[in-house]
Amino acid sequence: MELGIVVVEICDGNTITLVDVEGILESEFPEVAVIMNECLNFCGLCAVRPYALVNNKRVFGKTPEECLDKIRVAIKEELAQFE
After folding, report:
1. Pfam families, alphabetically (predicted)?
2. Least CB-packed of 27, 36, 56, 59 within 10 Å?
């Protein structure tokens, strides 16, 4: 696996996994590496709402789709720092 300049970490117990985050983001953003983890050590958070870490910054949404949209925004903000 090649590591991207933006790393998105997903807890595999989180409801965000209802959508194919890895496939979607890695096809839209070649600079992104999506890492699936068993646990991101934010105990209980994954049971409350969909979330991910984008370069270690927490991104939340009310639904998996909303969270995915917010992840896209966070990725674009991170990529803008490299331009």
Report:
1. DUF1450
2. 56
